[in-house]
From TrEMBL:
InterPro entries per the UniProt record, alphabetical: FAD-oxidoreductase/Apoptosis, FAD/NAD-bd_sf, FAD/NAD-binding_dom, FAD/NAD-linked_Rdtase_dimer_sf, Reductase_C
Keywords of this entry: FAD, Flavoprotein, Oxidoreductase
Pfam families named among the record's database cross-references: Pyr_redox_2, Reductase_C
Gene3D superfamilies xref list: 3.30.390.30, FAD/NAD(P)-binding domain (3.50.50.60)
GO cellular component: cytoplasm
Co-factor requirement: FAD
Domain of life per record: Bacteria
Domain Reductase C-terminal span(s) in chain numbering: 341-412
Annotated protein name in UniProt: Pyridine nucleotide-disulfide oxidoreductase
GO molecular function, one term: oxidoreductase activity, acting on NAD(P)H
Ranges where the record places region Disordered: 410-475
Domain FAD/NAD(P)-binding: 12-318
Organism (species): Dictyobacter alpinus
């Protein structure tokens, strides 16, 4: 039996999840002297590729799908097991079980299984010709071909970052597009209602038919299985031939639910060194986690477990995990960079640093909203916790420093482009039960001992069924 206790630069390391985090971790392991056997397991048949362009430059036609494959910095001399999913983790035997029946032993394991697109809850409606999600290389290719064929009207279900980016591409292509968002404003789950109202103005100014506080109840096809109509919660029926389901992400944890790890629908719990916890709250020295599937404590946010679905975090956490998998205990380093994320839509470059979703207040500190060039700071109980820049990305450096220093909110910058008087407003994040589609970076609760949520049940944003109209939950 494999004991799983061989450390240092020898033995066998298995990485489950052959995308961005898995690839960068593998490269870091080799760069830091790992000489043993390295195996990468991925459920898709493709080499690692870049996902962010799929909802932006691929859809617009600026970048072909074939150009989204990630550059491999070096020959990692790995065994690649692609196109086969992991179905179970046997901790006692240190074995990963695959869908094709193979059992892959390991000394150390890194979990980087990431997320997948949340599907439309009705499988028959999701199967209609003309209904798409946007997460995989195949999704991007198919949707690009359909948009290039000039459909009559596109419906985007969900106005998080992905949905808003798809809507932006549709307008660039001159396509009529309707966006249905169950909360009061686009991007409300990621940036709050106050910023979301600004986003709504920009979307409508660019010709988007934006429907907020509205839910798509059903997608209807014709006798040949082609999408033809969408029924909304306000009683309206839209004639459409393309629908893009952009309801956020589901963490790929089902294969781990009986493993004995601390895992639920919110992700896999790990410590600051990326070591996984078991279900009893005991940290494991040979199981590590990185990327979108991880939940870990950040010292700036009072030990709350963060879940960050973004490119930069996946790379940094993978590199930290790789270092800690090889080093002596005294040399471990924590993963504690500030969350950052960005989006390009409707001629806007939106970049954020920190954790906006925990904030209770927001204030514009530089620039002006009407000029489409500004910075907004976010505060929680008198402390600066995040900042978002619109068409001013270079301004965020000073805010990152202040967040790290736990600076007071509202921040006093004395910036020459600052307003004469700071107008502090409520941040307007949806209350629990008012589900939104794309928080991107959020707190998921304290510690591994929190009551678990079953995968497939209510997610961390509220109702598991996106067709349920938003609204406060009853007590």
């Amino acid at each position: 039996m494999n004991t799983g206790r061989q450390a240092g630069t020898d033995g066998r390391i298995v990485i489950v999840g052959a995308s961005l985090a898995g690839l960068r971790a593998a490269e870091a392991l080799r760069d830091q002297g790992f000489k043993g056997q390295l195996t990468l397991i991925g459920d898709e048949p493709y080499a690692p590729y870049d996902r962010p362009p799929l909802s932006k430059t691929v859809l617009s036609g600026w970048l072909p799908v074939s150009h989204t494959y990630l550059p491999q910095m070096r020959d990692i001399q790995a065994e690649w097991l692609l196109g086969v999913a992991a179905t179970n983790l046997n901790l006692s035997e240190h074995v990963v079980e695959l869908a094709d029946g193979r059992r892959i032993p390991f000394d150390r394991l890194l979990i980087t299984t990431g997320t997948r697109a949340r599907p439309w809850p009705d499988a028959e409606q999701m199967a209609l010709d003309g209904v798409f999600s946007i997460r995989t290389l195949d999704d991007g290719q198919r949707l690009r071909e359909v948009l290039a064929a000039n459909p009559k009207r596109v419906l985007v279900i969900g106005a998080g970052f992905t949905g808003s980016e798809v809507a932006s591409v549709c307008r660039e292509l001159g396509l009529p597009v309707t966006v249905a968002e169950r909360s009061a404003a686009p991007l409300a789950g990621a940036l709050g209602g106050a910023a979301g109202m600004v986003a709504a103005r920009f979307q409508r100014a660019n010709g988007v038919d934006l429907r907020c506080n509205v839910t798509v109840l059903a997608l209807e096809g014709d006798a040949n299985g082609h999408l033809r109509r969408a029924h909304l919660s306000d009683g309206d029926a839209l004639e459409i031939d393309v629908a893009v389901v952009a309801l956020g992400a589901v963490r790929n944890v089902e294969w781990l639910l009986s493993s004995g790890l601390a895992v639920d629908a919110r992700g896999v719990v790990c410590d600051g060194a990326c070591r996984a916890f078991d279900a009893n709250g005991i940290v494991l020295d040979d199981i590590f986690v990185a990327g979108d599937v991880a939940r870990w404590p950040h010292p700036l946010y009072d030990g709350q477990l963060l879940a960050v679905e973004h490119w930069g975090n996946a790379v940094e956490q993978a590199e930290t995990a790789a270092h800690n998998m090889l080093c002596e205990p005294a040399q471990r380093k924590p993963h504690r960079p500030l969350p950052t994320f960005w989006s390009n839509q409707f001629g806007l470059n939106i970049k954020a640093v920190g954790l906006p979703t925990v904030a209770d207040q927001i204030v514009v500190t530089q620039g002006a909203v009407e000029r489409r060039r500004f910075v907004a700071a976010y505060g929680l109980k008198g402390r600066l916790v995040a900042a978002v820049a619109v068409n001013m990305p270079r301004s965020l450096g000073i805010y990152a420093e202040m967040i790290q220093e736990r600076a007071a909110f509202p921040p006093r910058l004395n910036a020459p482009d600052g307003p004469e008087e700071l107008q502090v407003r409520p941040s307007g994040f949806p209350a629990p039960g008012q589900s939104t589609h794309s928080p991107v970076a959020t707190s998921t609760g304290p510690g591994p001992g929190t009551p678990p949520q079953p995968a497939g049940g209510p997610d961390m944003n509220g109702s598991s069924d996106p067709r349920v109209p938003s609204g406060p939950t009853s007590i």
